[in-house]
Amino acid sequence: MNIERCEDLIDWTSQAHARLSKCMTEGANERSDSLAKMLLVYLAQHEQQLTSTIARIKEHADPRALQTRLHDAVQRDMLGLEFDSDAYARMSVDDISREIFTIHNQIIDLYRLLENRAGLDRAGDLLGEMLQLEEHETMRLAQQVNRMHEL
Q: What is the pTM of this model?
């Protein structure tokens, strides 16, 4: 996907969470161990809710902010998230946890990089809102995953 405008980045983010949800659902369907299956089901639901939240943010965003060009600020290698349903079907609970936080941290790092970039004034608030959402949801995930590990 080519990221030229802020709207493209938000679409990419939404699509990443949707793909992650789909892969985790598929991985959960292949699991027989209850803790890993429960974790994958929870994470898939969380990712789907996050996709819906992003859609609402985009719907209410300033159209000028959405159309703000990112001036080649997003390099293709920053967008390289890999999702593999089969891998989730085989991963340990710890590996699943590590993987989800690695993916969320990559997205957070991308938004942090862009948030204060010069020339993105109109989009700055929107990028900041997306960053806060990703950070908040990652912290919430951490709390829930830790609770599951305690089981």
A: 0.89
